[in-house]
TrEMBL record:
Annotated Pfam families: NAGPA
Protein name per Swiss-Prot or TrEMBL: Uncharacterized protein DUF2233
PANTHER family recorded: N-ACETYLGLUCOSAMINE-1-PHOSPHODIESTER ALPHA-N-ACETYLGLUCOSAMINIDASE
Superkingdom: Bacteria
Phosphodiester glycosidase domain span: 263-414
Amino acid sequence: MVDVRFLERRLASGVTARVVRLEPGGFRVLPYFTQDAPLDETRLAVILAEARLGQPVVPVPPAVRRMAPRDLDGSHRIAARADARSGVACAPLRLFRTVAAGLAPGEILTNASYFLFLAPEVAGPFDAYGDPIGLTLADGVVETPPQIPRSCLLIGDAGPEIRRIGFAHAEIRTVQGLPFSPHPFGPATQVAAGTAFALFHGSAGGLTPVAEGLWDVAFVGRHAVALSQGGGLSIPRAGCVLRCASRSEAEAVAAGPLTYSLPALQQGIQSGPLIVEDGQTMEAGRNVFVEELLTDDAPRPDSVCVSPHDWRADWHRTRAARLSAGITRDGRLFFCAVEGTSSFFRDGTAQGATLHDLAQLMIEEGAAQAIHLDGGGSTQVFCHGGGALIAPRDVHHGMPDSPAQFDRPLPLGLVLS
C-alpha cells in the first residue's frame, strides 16, 4: 500500500494549498506512447491537441512510425506522419482516469514528465505531439533515450536516486549487436560512421552534420523512421540518428529495434529541474534553469529551441499545480502533489505553488534531494477505480468553452505501489 496523506499547507509564499503526500515502496514507468490507445481516447486527444496547437492533428499509431528495410528508398522518407500535408502527428495518449481502472487496489497513478506540447517542438518531420522529452526507462528497457543532461528520477540496484543523465551516457547497440558511440554534448566534432547523433549532441539546426557518402538512419525511440545519404537528416526529439558506412549497413541497422543501455537501472524518467540538493533549495548561487537548459536564454550548442519550449523558468512568479519527487537522507522516496491550475490559466487568478513554494514544501517534508516532475494541466493523481486525489485542472483556450476544465491526455505515467 502507498502511504497517502492529505494536507492543507500554508506555502512559503503565504498561499494555502491542498497537498497530497505519497510515500510508496517504489514505482514503475508505464510508457503508453508505445502502445495503441483506445479509439475514444484518441479522438479526445486529437480534439484537445488541435485546440492547443491551432493546427490539424493526425493520430499516428506506434506501428506507423516504424520502417521495414523494403521501405527504405534513400530519401528523407517520413514514417512519423501518415501524410505530411494532413497535419501534426500525435503519439498515443491516454486518459489517466480510465487507465486507473486497471490499477491494483492500493496503487496510485501519477503523471511523470514533459512531452512535446507546443508548435515549435513538433516542427521536425519525425516529431509528434505527445512524444516524451528525454529518458523513458521501463522495466530495464529504455524506450526513449536521455537527451540534454537533465535531472532524472531513477530506481536502480541501490534504490531510488535523482541524478543528471545525458545522451552521451547511453550505450547504444543495434539489433545485430553493433555498437554506436553517442556524440558528446556540443557541436559536431565526430562525423564518422559508427556515431550516434541527438539534438545538441553533434546537431546543427536540428540536423546531422554533412558527410558525403555516409548513410544516416533516424530512430524515434527504438524504431527506424527514415534513411538518408550524405547527412543533413532531421534528428527526432524522442530519438537519435545512427551514421552508417554504407546503404547495406543502414538497411540492416534499420531492420530491428535499438537498445539503449543504462546499466544497473530499472525505472526512470527525465524531467527537472532539480529543486533541492543536500536539503537546500537550488535558488541560491546557481542558475539551475540554465544548467538543465530549461530556458531559451541558456547557452546551447544548436539553434533549435529547447524542450519544453517557453517553460516558465522562475522561482517566485509562476503559480500552478505541481508534482515533485523527493528522497530523504535515509533513502526513502516520496512524492508531493499540490492542487492548482494549469499554468496556461487565464480565467482568474492562477492557483497552486511556485517552484519556491514546492522546494520549501519538499524540504519541510524531509527531502534531501527533490526534482520537479512537471505541473500545470499535466498534474494528475488517481487511485484504483479512477478516483482523483487532487482535481485535474487543464484548460484549452482554443475551445469555445475555455473556462471548462479537462483531464489532459498523457503519454506516460508512474504507478506507485
